Protein backbone atom coordinates (compact mmCIF):
# COMPACT_ATOMS: atom_id res chain seq x y z
CA UNK A 1 0.00 0.00 0.00
CA UNK A 2 2.04 2.71 -1.45
CA UNK A 3 -0.56 5.41 -0.96
CA UNK A 4 -0.85 4.63 2.72
CA UNK A 5 2.84 4.51 2.72
CA UNK A 6 2.91 7.86 0.86
CA UNK A 7 0.39 9.31 3.25
CA UNK A 8 2.37 8.04 6.13
CA UNK A 9 5.63 9.29 4.72
CA UNK A 10 4.21 12.71 3.79
CA UNK A 11 2.73 13.20 7.27
CA UNK A 12 5.97 12.14 8.75
CA UNK A 13 7.94 14.59 6.65
CA UNK A 14 5.55 17.47 7.42
CA UNK A 15 5.88 16.60 11.10
CA UNK A 16 9.64 16.68 10.83
CA UNK A 17 9.56 20.02 8.95
CA UNK A 18 7.28 21.54 11.56
CA UNK A 19 9.51 20.29 14.32
CA UNK A 20 12.50 21.70 12.51
CA UNK A 21 10.86 25.06 11.89
CA UNK A 22 9.81 25.26 15.55
CA UNK A 23 13.32 24.52 16.70
CA UNK A 24 14.72 27.13 14.29
CA UNK A 25 12.16 29.66 15.45
CA UNK A 26 13.03 29.06 19.11
CA UNK A 27 16.69 29.36 18.32
CA UNK A 28 16.15 32.60 16.38
CA UNK A 29 14.10 34.14 19.18
CA UNK A 30 16.66 33.35 21.82
CA UNK A 31 19.37 34.72 19.51
CA UNK A 32 17.34 37.87 19.06
CA UNK A 33 16.92 38.16 22.83
CA UNK A 34 20.62 37.71 23.34
CA UNK A 35 21.32 40.30 20.67
CA UNK A 36 18.95 42.81 22.29
CA UNK A 37 20.49 42.26 25.73
CA UNK A 38 23.94 42.62 24.22
CA UNK A 39 23.01 45.88 22.43
CA UNK A 40 21.52 47.37 25.57
CA UNK A 41 24.66 46.37 27.47
CA UNK A 42 26.93 47.94 24.89
CA UNK A 43 24.89 51.15 24.89
CA UNK A 44 24.96 51.36 28.65
CA UNK A 45 28.71 50.76 28.54
CA UNK A 46 29.25 53.51 26.00
CA UNK A 47 27.16 56.02 27.94
CA UNK A 48 28.84 55.23 31.26
CA UNK A 49 32.26 55.43 29.64
CA UNK A 50 31.63 58.81 28.04
CA UNK A 51 30.07 60.13 31.26
CA UNK A 52 33.08 59.10 33.29
CA UNK A 53 35.38 60.67 30.70
CA UNK A 54 33.40 63.88 30.92
CA UNK A 55 33.91 63.88 34.69
CA UNK A 56 37.63 64.33 34.17
CA UNK A 57 37.32 66.83 31.37
CA UNK A 58 36.94 70.46 32.40
CA UNK A 59 33.55 70.96 30.74
CA UNK A 60 30.31 69.16 29.91
CA UNK A 61 29.01 66.34 32.10
CA UNK A 62 29.32 66.43 35.85
CA UNK A 63 28.45 63.72 38.29
CA UNK A 64 24.97 65.23 38.54
CA UNK A 65 24.42 64.90 34.80
CA UNK A 66 25.34 61.23 35.09
CA UNK A 67 23.01 60.62 37.98
CA UNK A 68 20.24 62.54 36.19
CA UNK A 69 20.76 60.37 33.15
CA UNK A 70 20.28 57.13 35.02
CA UNK A 71 18.55 57.64 38.34
CA UNK A 72 15.72 59.62 36.90
CA UNK A 73 13.31 58.42 39.50
CA UNK A 74 15.50 59.07 42.51
CA UNK A 75 14.62 62.30 44.37
CA UNK A 76 16.91 65.32 43.87
CA UNK A 77 19.75 65.23 46.38
CA UNK A 78 18.78 68.46 48.11
CA UNK A 79 17.67 69.85 50.45
CA UNK A 80 19.94 67.50 52.38
CA UNK A 81 18.16 65.94 55.33
CA UNK A 82 21.17 66.00 57.66
CA UNK A 83 23.41 69.08 58.18
CA UNK A 84 26.95 68.91 56.82
CA UNK A 85 29.59 67.76 59.29
CA UNK A 86 30.64 70.67 61.50
CA UNK A 87 34.02 72.25 60.63
CA UNK A 88 36.89 71.33 62.93
CA UNK A 89 37.18 73.77 65.81
CA UNK A 90 39.18 76.84 64.80
CA UNK A 91 41.35 78.85 67.18
CA UNK A 92 40.25 82.35 67.96
CA UNK A 93 38.69 84.41 66.51
CA UNK A 94 35.62 82.14 66.43
CA UNK A 95 34.22 81.78 62.93
CA UNK A 96 30.46 82.20 62.50
CA UNK A 97 28.48 78.96 62.09
CA UNK A 98 28.32 77.89 58.46
CA UNK A 99 25.07 78.80 56.67
CA UNK A 100 22.74 75.87 55.87
CA UNK A 101 24.20 74.37 52.75
CA UNK A 102 22.15 73.08 49.83
CA UNK A 103 24.85 70.64 48.88
CA UNK A 104 27.62 69.47 51.19
CA UNK A 105 30.62 71.73 50.74
CA UNK A 106 33.97 71.61 52.53
CA UNK A 107 34.12 73.80 55.67
CA UNK A 108 35.92 77.15 55.23
CA UNK A 109 39.63 76.88 56.06
CA UNK A 110 40.58 78.00 59.55
CA UNK A 111 42.27 81.42 59.48
CA UNK A 112 45.74 80.57 60.78
CA UNK A 113 46.76 84.23 61.16
CA UNK A 114 44.63 87.17 62.13
CA UNK A 115 44.50 89.98 59.60
CA UNK A 116 46.66 92.06 61.93
CA UNK A 117 49.55 89.58 61.78
CA UNK A 118 48.92 88.86 58.16
CA UNK A 119 48.63 92.28 56.64
CA UNK A 120 50.72 95.43 56.33
CA UNK A 121 50.35 96.05 60.07
CA UNK A 122 53.43 93.97 60.85
CA UNK A 123 55.66 96.50 59.07
CA UNK A 124 54.68 99.71 60.87
CA UNK A 125 54.27 97.81 64.15
CA UNK A 126 56.58 94.79 64.26
CA UNK A 127 56.36 92.27 67.06
CA UNK A 128 57.42 93.50 70.49
CA UNK A 129 59.21 90.20 70.96
CA UNK A 130 62.59 90.54 69.23
CA UNK A 131 63.85 87.01 69.90
CA UNK A 132 64.28 84.77 66.86
CA UNK A 133 66.15 81.62 65.89
CA UNK A 134 67.91 82.92 62.76
CA UNK A 135 71.59 82.16 62.24
CA UNK A 136 73.79 85.18 61.51
CA UNK A 137 73.83 84.39 57.79
CA UNK A 138 70.04 84.16 57.69
CA UNK A 139 69.63 87.29 59.82
CA UNK A 140 71.92 89.42 57.63
CA UNK A 141 70.17 88.22 54.48
CA UNK A 142 66.77 89.02 55.94
CA UNK A 143 67.96 92.43 57.17
CA UNK A 144 69.39 93.36 53.76
CA UNK A 145 65.92 93.52 52.17
CA UNK A 146 64.84 96.97 50.99
CA UNK A 147 61.44 98.03 49.66
CA UNK A 148 61.87 99.31 46.12
CA UNK A 149 59.07 101.85 46.52
CA UNK A 150 60.66 104.69 48.47
CA UNK A 151 57.56 106.32 49.99
CA UNK A 152 55.77 104.58 52.86
CA UNK A 153 52.04 103.74 52.43
CA UNK A 154 51.49 104.30 56.18
CA UNK A 155 52.37 107.11 58.57
CA UNK A 156 55.95 106.36 59.64
CA UNK A 157 57.55 108.01 62.64
CA UNK A 158 61.31 107.58 62.27
CA UNK A 159 62.91 105.99 65.33
CA UNK A 160 66.43 105.90 66.71
CA UNK A 161 67.88 102.45 67.40
CA UNK A 162 70.08 102.55 70.52
CA UNK A 163 72.34 99.52 70.21
CA UNK A 164 74.21 98.55 73.37
CA UNK A 165 77.26 96.36 72.86
CA UNK A 166 78.29 95.12 76.28
CA UNK A 167 80.24 92.30 77.84
CA UNK A 168 77.87 91.97 80.77
CA UNK A 169 75.38 94.04 82.71
CA UNK A 170 74.55 97.68 82.07
CA UNK A 171 75.62 99.41 85.30
CA UNK A 172 74.43 102.82 84.09
CA UNK A 173 70.96 101.54 83.13
CA UNK A 174 69.21 103.72 85.79
CA UNK A 175 70.53 106.86 84.05
CA UNK A 176 69.38 105.61 80.64
CA UNK A 177 65.94 104.76 82.10
CA UNK A 178 65.55 108.42 83.05
CA UNK A 179 66.80 109.52 79.64
CA UNK A 180 64.31 107.35 77.72
CA UNK A 181 61.28 107.89 79.96
CA UNK A 182 58.33 109.44 78.12
CA UNK A 183 59.67 108.95 74.60
CA UNK A 184 58.65 105.33 74.06
CA UNK A 185 57.34 105.94 70.51
CA UNK A 186 60.61 107.36 69.20
CA UNK A 187 63.26 104.75 69.95
CA UNK A 188 64.09 101.05 70.07
CA UNK A 189 66.75 99.45 72.25
CA UNK A 190 68.87 96.44 71.27
CA UNK A 191 71.30 94.86 73.73
CA UNK A 192 74.11 92.47 72.78
CA UNK A 193 75.48 90.77 75.92
CA UNK A 194 77.85 87.83 76.23
CA UNK A 195 75.54 84.76 76.05
CA UNK A 196 77.03 83.25 79.22
CA UNK A 197 75.69 86.19 81.18
CA UNK A 198 72.24 85.48 82.62
CA UNK A 199 70.88 88.82 83.62
CA UNK A 200 67.62 89.70 85.24
CA UNK A 201 65.96 92.77 83.78
CA UNK A 202 62.75 93.63 85.62
CA UNK A 203 59.48 94.04 83.75
CA UNK A 204 58.83 97.73 83.18
CA UNK A 205 62.47 98.52 82.43
CA UNK A 206 63.17 99.96 78.96
CA UNK A 207 65.79 97.21 78.59
CA UNK A 208 63.34 94.39 79.35
CA UNK A 209 63.07 91.93 76.46
CA UNK A 210 65.53 93.89 74.31
CA UNK A 211 68.37 91.39 74.41
CA UNK A 212 69.18 89.97 70.96
CA UNK A 213 70.60 86.49 70.24
CA UNK A 214 74.33 86.94 70.86
CA UNK A 215 77.77 85.33 70.68
CA UNK A 216 80.85 85.81 72.84
CA UNK A 217 82.93 88.87 71.94
CA UNK A 218 86.67 89.30 72.55
CA UNK A 219 87.97 92.87 72.52
CA UNK A 220 89.92 93.61 69.33
CA UNK A 221 88.76 90.38 67.69
CA UNK A 222 86.79 90.08 64.44
CA UNK A 223 83.82 88.82 66.44
CA UNK A 224 83.48 92.39 67.76
CA UNK A 225 82.48 93.49 64.24
CA UNK A 226 80.21 90.47 63.93
CA UNK A 227 78.41 91.59 67.08
CA UNK A 228 78.02 95.08 65.57
CA UNK A 229 76.59 93.53 62.40
CA UNK A 230 74.20 91.45 64.53
CA UNK A 231 72.98 94.58 66.30
CA UNK A 232 72.56 96.49 63.04
CA UNK A 233 70.71 93.60 61.39
CA UNK A 234 68.32 93.12 64.30
CA UNK A 235 67.59 96.84 64.33
CA UNK A 236 67.06 96.93 60.55
CA UNK A 237 64.26 94.36 60.91
CA UNK A 238 62.14 97.22 62.27
CA UNK A 239 61.31 99.41 59.28
CA UNK A 240 60.74 102.40 61.58
CA UNK A 241 64.36 102.58 62.68
CA UNK A 242 66.08 105.38 60.77
CA UNK A 243 69.23 106.12 62.80
CA UNK A 244 71.50 103.53 64.43
CA UNK A 245 73.72 104.45 67.38
CA UNK A 246 76.30 102.03 68.78
CA UNK A 247 76.92 102.44 72.52
CA UNK A 248 78.80 100.60 75.24
CA UNK A 249 77.91 99.87 78.85
CA UNK A 250 80.15 102.80 79.90
CA UNK A 251 78.43 105.39 77.67
CA UNK A 252 76.16 108.16 78.96
CA UNK A 253 73.91 110.63 77.13
CA UNK A 254 75.14 114.24 77.41
CA UNK A 255 71.79 115.80 76.38
CA UNK A 256 68.14 114.92 76.86
CA UNK A 257 66.21 112.72 74.50
CA UNK A 258 64.52 115.59 72.66
CA UNK A 259 67.84 117.20 71.74
CA UNK A 260 69.51 113.96 70.69
CA UNK A 261 66.50 112.71 68.71
CA UNK A 262 66.13 115.98 66.81
CA UNK A 263 69.82 116.16 66.08
CA UNK A 264 69.94 112.64 64.64
CA UNK A 265 66.66 112.65 62.75
CA UNK A 266 67.40 116.02 61.16
CA UNK A 267 70.97 115.15 60.26
CA UNK A 268 71.89 114.58 56.64
CA UNK A 269 75.20 113.02 57.68
CA UNK A 270 76.38 109.77 59.19
CA UNK A 271 78.81 109.91 62.11
CA UNK A 272 81.67 107.47 61.75
CA UNK A 273 85.11 108.67 62.74
CA UNK A 274 87.24 107.95 59.70
CA UNK A 275 90.73 109.36 59.13
CA UNK A 276 93.85 108.60 57.15
CA UNK A 277 96.86 109.19 59.41
CA UNK A 278 100.15 107.32 59.93
CA UNK A 279 98.74 105.87 63.17
CA UNK A 280 96.09 104.10 61.08
CA UNK A 281 98.26 103.23 58.09
CA UNK A 282 100.60 101.05 60.09
CA UNK A 283 97.69 98.63 60.61
CA UNK A 284 97.30 98.20 56.83
CA UNK A 285 98.01 94.65 55.67
CA UNK A 286 99.31 94.44 52.10
CA UNK A 287 97.43 91.17 51.60
CA UNK A 288 94.28 93.29 51.32
CA UNK A 289 95.70 94.55 48.03
CA UNK A 290 94.39 94.98 45.33
CA UNK A 291 90.87 95.10 46.79
CA UNK A 292 91.79 97.77 49.35
CA UNK A 293 94.61 100.19 48.63
CA UNK A 294 96.66 101.83 51.34
CA UNK A 295 95.19 105.26 50.54
CA UNK A 296 91.65 103.87 50.95
CA UNK A 297 92.37 102.34 54.35
CA UNK A 298 90.91 104.27 57.31
CA UNK A 299 90.99 104.25 61.10
CA UNK A 300 88.49 105.60 63.61
CA UNK A 301 86.51 105.06 66.78
CA UNK A 302 84.35 101.96 66.92
CA UNK A 303 81.38 103.93 68.27
CA UNK A 304 79.44 104.89 65.16
CA UNK A 305 76.14 106.42 64.19
CA UNK A 306 74.63 105.39 60.85
CA UNK A 307 71.49 106.17 58.91
CA UNK A 308 69.35 103.43 57.41
CA UNK A 309 70.94 103.59 53.95
CA UNK A 310 74.45 103.13 55.34
CA UNK A 311 73.36 100.45 57.82
CA UNK A 312 71.89 98.51 54.89
CA UNK A 313 75.19 98.78 52.98
CA UNK A 314 77.09 97.46 56.00
CA UNK A 315 74.92 94.38 56.61
CA UNK A 316 74.79 93.65 52.86
CA UNK A 317 78.53 93.69 52.29
CA UNK A 318 79.74 90.17 51.51
CA UNK A 319 82.88 91.25 49.64
CA UNK A 320 85.00 93.47 51.92
CA UNK A 321 84.16 91.91 55.28
CA UNK A 322 85.83 88.53 54.50
CA UNK A 323 89.00 90.46 53.55
CA UNK A 324 89.00 92.45 56.81
CA UNK A 325 88.06 89.35 58.75
CA UNK A 326 91.07 87.51 57.38
CA UNK A 327 93.77 90.22 57.31
CA UNK A 328 92.84 93.18 59.51
CA UNK A 329 94.05 93.67 63.07
CA UNK A 330 91.39 95.27 65.35
CA UNK A 331 88.86 95.43 62.49
CA UNK A 332 86.27 97.29 64.57
CA UNK A 333 88.47 100.38 64.18
CA UNK A 334 88.92 99.96 60.41
CA UNK A 335 86.19 97.98 58.68
CA UNK A 336 83.16 100.32 58.62
CA UNK A 337 85.52 103.33 58.61
CA UNK A 338 87.08 102.07 55.35
CA UNK A 339 83.91 100.59 53.86
CA UNK A 340 82.34 104.06 53.76
CA UNK A 341 85.06 105.19 51.41
CA UNK A 342 85.35 102.21 49.11
CA UNK A 343 81.83 100.88 48.75
CA UNK A 344 80.14 103.99 47.38
CA UNK A 345 81.69 107.42 47.19
CA UNK A 346 78.26 109.03 47.64
CA UNK A 347 77.93 107.41 51.07
CA UNK A 348 81.48 108.33 52.06
CA UNK A 349 80.93 111.97 51.18
CA UNK A 350 77.85 112.01 53.42
CA UNK A 351 79.92 110.92 56.40
CA UNK A 352 80.97 113.61 58.87
CA UNK A 353 84.16 111.62 59.62
CA UNK A 354 83.73 112.30 63.33
CA UNK A 355 82.19 110.32 66.17
CA UNK A 356 79.34 111.54 68.38
CA UNK A 357 80.80 109.78 71.41
CA UNK A 358 83.35 111.67 73.47
CA UNK A 359 86.39 109.86 74.85
CA UNK A 360 89.55 111.25 76.47
CA UNK A 361 92.60 109.90 74.64
CA UNK A 362 94.98 112.49 76.14
CA UNK A 363 96.85 109.75 78.01
CA UNK A 364 97.83 108.15 74.67
CA UNK A 365 97.28 104.62 75.96
CA UNK A 366 95.48 101.66 74.43
CA UNK A 367 92.29 102.69 76.22
CA UNK A 368 90.73 106.09 76.88
CA UNK A 369 90.55 107.55 80.34
CA UNK A 370 87.80 106.32 82.67
CA UNK A 371 85.64 108.64 84.80
CA UNK A 372 84.51 107.67 88.29
CA UNK A 373 82.81 109.32 91.22
CA UNK A 374 85.54 111.94 91.83
CA UNK A 375 85.68 113.15 88.20
CA UNK A 376 81.97 113.56 87.56
CA UNK A 377 80.77 117.01 88.59
CA UNK A 378 78.81 119.89 87.06
CA UNK A 379 81.84 121.61 85.49
CA UNK A 380 83.07 118.42 83.86
CA UNK A 381 79.68 117.57 82.36
CA UNK A 382 79.19 121.14 81.12
CA UNK A 383 82.59 121.03 79.50
CA UNK A 384 81.72 117.87 77.55
CA UNK A 385 78.38 119.36 76.47
CA UNK A 386 79.94 122.56 75.18
CA UNK A 387 82.76 121.10 73.11
CA UNK A 388 82.70 122.28 69.54
CA UNK A 389 83.94 120.66 66.39
CA UNK A 390 84.02 122.60 63.15
CA UNK A 391 80.77 124.24 62.17
CA UNK A 392 78.58 121.86 64.17
CA UNK A 393 76.50 123.37 66.96
CA UNK A 394 76.80 120.17 68.97
CA UNK A 395 79.85 118.02 68.89
CA UNK A 396 79.34 115.09 71.23
CA UNK A 397 75.93 113.65 72.12
CA UNK A 398 77.36 110.82 74.24
CA UNK A 399 80.40 110.29 76.44
CA UNK A 400 82.52 107.38 77.64
CA UNK A 401 84.04 105.73 79.65
CA UNK A 402 82.00 106.18 82.82
CA UNK A 403 82.54 103.78 85.71
CA UNK A 404 79.70 102.32 87.81
CA UNK A 405 80.95 104.50 90.69
CA UNK A 406 79.95 107.61 88.70
CA UNK A 407 76.27 106.59 88.63
CA UNK A 408 75.15 108.39 91.80
CA UNK A 409 76.62 111.72 90.70
CA UNK A 410 75.22 111.30 87.21
CA UNK A 411 71.73 110.72 88.63
CA UNK A 412 72.07 113.87 90.74
CA UNK A 413 73.20 116.08 87.83
CA UNK A 414 71.03 114.61 85.10
CA UNK A 415 68.13 116.97 85.76
CA UNK A 416 70.15 120.16 86.39
CA UNK A 417 72.88 119.72 83.76
CA UNK A 418 71.53 117.36 81.13
CA UNK A 419 67.85 118.40 81.53
CA UNK A 420 66.22 115.00 81.78
C1 LIG B 1 25.81 69.06 33.14
O1 LIG B 1 25.34 69.86 34.18
C2 LIG B 1 25.95 71.13 34.23
C3 LIG B 1 25.39 71.86 35.44
O2 LIG B 1 25.28 71.00 36.51
C4 LIG B 1 25.66 71.90 32.93
O3 LIG B 1 26.35 73.16 33.00
C5 LIG B 1 26.15 71.11 31.77
O4 LIG B 1 25.77 71.78 30.56
C6 LIG B 1 25.53 69.72 31.79
N1 LIG B 1 26.07 68.94 30.69
C7 LIG B 1 25.33 68.23 29.90
C8 LIG B 1 26.03 67.49 28.84
O5 LIG B 1 24.12 68.16 30.06
C1 LIG C 1 59.46 85.61 72.72
O1 LIG C 1 59.29 84.50 71.86
C2 LIG C 1 59.99 83.34 72.26
C3 LIG C 1 59.75 82.28 71.21
O2 LIG C 1 60.07 82.75 69.95
C4 LIG C 1 59.52 82.89 73.62
O3 LIG C 1 60.26 81.78 74.03
C5 LIG C 1 59.72 84.03 74.62
O4 LIG C 1 59.18 83.67 75.87
C6 LIG C 1 59.03 85.29 74.13
N1 LIG C 1 59.37 86.39 75.03
C7 LIG C 1 58.46 87.24 75.49
C8 LIG C 1 58.97 88.33 76.39
O5 LIG C 1 57.29 87.17 75.20
C1 LIG D 1 64.24 119.43 62.26
O1 LIG D 1 64.58 120.80 62.16
C2 LIG D 1 63.50 121.65 61.89
C3 LIG D 1 64.01 123.06 61.72
O2 LIG D 1 65.24 123.24 62.35
C4 LIG D 1 62.47 121.54 63.00
O3 LIG D 1 61.37 122.36 62.72
C5 LIG D 1 62.01 120.12 63.15
O4 LIG D 1 61.15 119.99 64.24
C6 LIG D 1 63.20 119.20 63.35
N1 LIG D 1 62.77 117.83 63.36
C7 LIG D 1 62.87 117.10 64.42
C8 LIG D 1 62.43 115.67 64.30
O5 LIG D 1 63.33 117.50 65.46
C1 LIG E 1 84.97 112.59 55.00
O1 LIG E 1 86.05 111.95 54.32
C2 LIG E 1 85.76 111.59 52.98
C3 LIG E 1 86.97 110.93 52.40
O2 LIG E 1 87.62 110.15 53.31
C4 LIG E 1 85.39 112.80 52.16
O3 LIG E 1 84.98 112.41 50.89
C5 LIG E 1 84.26 113.55 52.85
O4 LIG E 1 84.00 114.74 52.16
C6 LIG E 1 84.62 113.86 54.28
N1 LIG E 1 83.46 114.47 54.93
C7 LIG E 1 83.51 115.68 55.45
C8 LIG E 1 82.24 116.17 56.05
O5 LIG E 1 84.51 116.35 55.44
C1 LIG F 1 66.12 119.34 76.87
O1 LIG F 1 67.27 120.09 77.14
C2 LIG F 1 67.22 121.43 76.67
C3 LIG F 1 68.54 122.10 77.02
O2 LIG F 1 69.62 121.26 76.75
C4 LIG F 1 66.07 122.17 77.32
O3 LIG F 1 65.98 123.49 76.79
C5 LIG F 1 64.78 121.43 77.05
O4 LIG F 1 63.72 122.04 77.75
C6 LIG F 1 64.90 119.99 77.48
N1 LIG F 1 63.73 119.29 77.07
C7 LIG F 1 62.96 118.61 77.93
C8 LIG F 1 61.78 117.91 77.38
O5 LIG F 1 63.20 118.59 79.12
From TrEMBL:
The keyword Ligase does not apply. Residues 74-111 have a biased composition (Pro residues). It comes from the Eukaryota. Keywords: Glycoprotein, Glycosyltransferase, Membrane, Transferase, Transmembrane, Transmembrane helix. InterPro entries: BC10-like, Glyco_trans_14. It is found in: Membrane. SUPFAM superfamilies: Formin homology 2 domain (FH2 domain). It is a single-pass type II membrane protein. The chain crosses the membrane at residues 28-48. GO terms for molecular function: glycosyltransferase activity. One of its GO terms (cellular component) is membrane. Residues 74-129 are annotated as: Disordered. This is Glycosyltransferase BC10. It comes from Cardamine amara subsp. amara. The lineage of its organism: Eukaryota, Viridiplantae, Streptophyta, Embryophyta, Tracheophyta.
